[in-house]
Amino acid sequence: MAKLEIIIKRQYFNEIKIGEKIEEYRLVNQYWAKRLVGKEYTHIIFKNGYNGDAPRFEIEYLGYELKNIKHEVFGDEDVCVFAIKLGKIKI
User: Fold this and answer.
1) How far apart are alpha carbons 83 and 8 in whole angstroms?
2) 8 A C-beta contact, residue 41 and residue 60
3) Cβ distance 23 to 85 under 8 Å?
4) Coil, helix or strand at residue 86
5) pTM of this prediction exceeds 0.85
6) Taking the domain 2-89, which CATH number applies?
7) What is the pLDDT of residues 63-73, one digit of tens each?
8) Domain locations in the chain?
9) Which is nearest to 43 in space by CA: 56, 60, 57?
10) Alpha-carbon span 9 to 48, nearest angstrom
11) Count of alpha carbons within 13 Å of 13, Cβ hemisphere only?
12) How distant, in Å, are the alpha carbons of 11, 13, 45 from that of 65?
């Protein structure tokens, strides 16, 4: 099956890698809906940067759910997000 690739900021990259962060949030919009809705993935490849040698790791993809959250990245208002559920890191 396919793998989803996501570019992510260093802070969140590190939090996921050490197990502190178990969900990754993406705004519900056409871009992310096209990549998530009706798609099946086994893993997510998280990359910290766009270069070919950027740090990366692979983690189990456990699906997503829609949530309304307030988060500093998205501003002061509640927003609807895809809460992407993360499993175990592939070693």
Assistant:
1) 15
2) no
3) yes
4) strand
5) yes
6) 2.30.130
7) 999 999 888 77
8) 2-89
9) 60
10) 6
11) 16
12) 23, 20, 19
